[in-house]
Write a structure and sequence with these properties.
Length: about 160
């Protein structure tokens, strides 16, 4: 008789991450890790993404012993400036104006904590997105259609 597979936990409250994982597996639980996501002094965007993904996985693993726990975080950066969730239309306009004609690097970290070993493996991927020049009408249209106010950088890139 074989043992049943370990349950899978997504350490995230993000509807976008939930949708991405649901493309791969159907049976998983989501837990919302309550962690401080502040950047540490002199922390690079890549290091921040990795630390947050690992912290999310470790925090949720403590609540679900024996589960495979996935933590993830994505940090977009324009040069060394981290782009946060705008939260408002006005802030989204300002962020997109700053990104116009620029390259934004997305640091996407995934941490996996396995139940047998208790080790947390993490990988950070870098993706460069080059923005064309955006005029005010482009920005306004995009914000009206996609409403990315809960997305870091004011744009969706799943």
């Amino acid at each position: 008789m074989s043992a049943s597979p370990a349950p899978v936990v997504l350490a995230s409250s993000s509807v976008y991450r939930r949708r991405l994982l649901a493309r791969l597996i159907t049976d998983f639980e989501c837990l919302s890790p309550q962690i401080d996501e502040s950047r540490l002094d002199n922390e690079t965007p890549a290091a921040l993404a990795a630390r947050l993904a690992q912290t999310k996985a470790l925090t949720c693993a403590a609540q679900r012993p024996g589960a495979v726990v996935l933590g993830s975080d994505q940090v977009p950066a324009l040069d060394d400036e981290i782009l946060h969730k705008p939260g408002s239309h006005e802030r989204a306009i300002r962020q997109l104006e700053r990104c116009s004609g620029q390259a934004v690097i997305f640091y996407t970290a995934v941490a996996i904590l396995g139940p047998q070993t208790g080790t947390c493996d993490c990988h950070v991927d870098e993706t460069t997105v080059r923005f064309r020049d955006l005029d005010p009408a482009d920005i306004e249209h995009y914000l009206q259609v996609d409403k990315p106010y809960d997305c870091a950088g004011s744009f969706k890139v799943e």
